[in-house]
Design brief:
77 residues; mainly alpha; elongated
């Protein structure tokens, strides 16, 4: 019999919002929102950001507000 190789567990990603203990996420804070957006301009998923579902919804809403106010691009060049 062949032994199955175990895959190493991926490291748990911690949310930068809870790490910095940010209470209020503002759409004008482009530096913080940039951590949650990929190079192509897409909002990163929960696995990649490490946020809870509630925080991920707030991040998505803040990014959408920033895009609407022309603070962030909709797509990358």
């Amino acid at each position: 019999k062949k032994k199955k190789k175990r895959k190493p567990k991926p490291k748990a990603v911690r949310c930068p919002l809870t790490k910095d203990q940010m209470i209020f996420l503002d759409y004008k804070d482009i530096y913080t929102l940039g951590k949650f957006v990929s190079q192509q301009g897409k909002i990163a998923d929960r696995k990649r950001t490490g946020c809870s579902a509630q925080l991920q919804r707030k991040v998505a809403l803040a990014v959408k507000h920033a895009r609407h106010m022309a603070l962030m691009p909709f797509v990358a060049k």
